[in-house]
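Quick entry, no commentary yet.
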Amino acid sequence: MSIEAAGTGKQLTATSGVLSSAVSDSFEVTAGAAAALAFAQQPTAVAAGTAFDPAVSVSVRDAYGNLVSSATDSVALQLTAGTGSLLGTTTVAASGGIATFTA
């Protein structure tokens, strides 16, 4: 048995036919190990040579899509379609599970 969604204030309820139900104490489910990246802020249209506004950000997620807020992994961006070069800082360490590319 497991729970895939991280969060606080979780409770379990036990039931069985005509018996009185029982409710567990509240508990917390924390995010699992880092397993994937997801864009928290997608890139938007921008003029050539200007910084993205808002800044592009990438979050570190566990296998169930929960933010791994303790993650400090380095995240790199690459231009993988189209022409040109990606300029500025292209590798950023995540803070609070989010890597934000500001320059």
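second:
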Amino acid sequence: MNKAEWITTKQLATELGCTQAHIRRNLKDQVFKEGHHYRNISPQAWRPSYRWHLPRCQAGLKMAQNAQLSHTQNPDSLVERNR
């Protein structure tokens, strides 16, 4: 794998046009999968330092957004949530 494909959190936020906090929320919500979308380059450190695969993150966010849109646009999903 090409090293240039893995970028910092700050670079990812710039490329995606969002904040680093948005990326962290998606990480917490498990939109991104370790080893596929990101990797921790300092696993022994008290604070993780992530590197992100830009094309995979773009695809992952798009899938998450599409899933969220289809869920909110489907009237049956509203019924399921209210049960």
